[in-house]
């Protein structure tokens, strides 16, 4: 048996056919393709009003039963784990498709949160969670008269 040493990094393949290397470099470095290879989590908007915090999570194609929202100490966790299986049986064929969707997002809640005043709703592909503030944390607005 004979061992043959293959050329290493010093071998310049661009001199042979630079177009092929550029195509593959561009293909694998393209953000369009690389973004699809990374696991996605839904986008989140967080807003604050004087009375509450609002978390909006974009998660289309799910049902309200798919969401699991937990509050543990000062952390709120939103997770989904959905498994779907489709089976089609025909006369001469059988088709089986599996689909699995899963994600989890966690957020640290500030001390001013009223844990008894947390509501969630799911409409048009957006999960909205309203987290109320404690009464002493709500700043009362009033007009101060100058004397």
Written overview of the protein:
The protein contains two helices and seven strands, in the order H-H-E-E-E-E-E-E-E. The chain is elongated. With 147 residues, it is mainly beta. A four-stranded antiparallel sheet has the order 1-2-7-6, with no helix packed on it. A three-stranded antiparallel sheet has the order 3-4-5, with no helix packed on it. The chain has a domain at 42-137: Immunoglobulin-like, CATH 2.60.40.790. The protein has helices spanning 18-29, 31-37; strands at residues 44-48, 52-58, 67-72, 75-89, 94-108, 113-123, 126-133.
Short description:
The protein has 147 residues and is mainly beta. The protein has a domain at 42-137: Sandwich (Immunoglobulin-like). 13% of the residues lie in helices and 46% in strands.
């Amino acid at each position: 048996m004979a061992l043959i040493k293959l050329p290493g990094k010093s071998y310049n393949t661009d001199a042979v056919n630079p177009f092929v290397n550029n195509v593959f470099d561009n293909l694998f470095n393209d953000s369009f393709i690389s973004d699809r290879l990374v696991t996605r989590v839904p986008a989140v908007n967080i807003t604050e009003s004087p009375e509450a915090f609002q978390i909006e999570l974009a998660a289309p194609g799910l049902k309200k039963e798919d969401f699991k929202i937990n509050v543990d100490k000062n952390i709120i966790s939103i997770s989904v784990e959905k498994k779907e299986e489709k089976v089609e049986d025909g006369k001469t064929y059988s088709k089986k498709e599996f689909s699995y969707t899963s994600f989890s997002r966690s957020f640290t809640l500030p001390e001013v949160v009223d844990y008894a005043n947390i509501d969630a709703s799911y409409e048009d592909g957006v999960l909205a969670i309203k987290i109320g503030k404690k009464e002493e944390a709500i700043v009362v607005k009033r007009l101060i008269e100058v004397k």
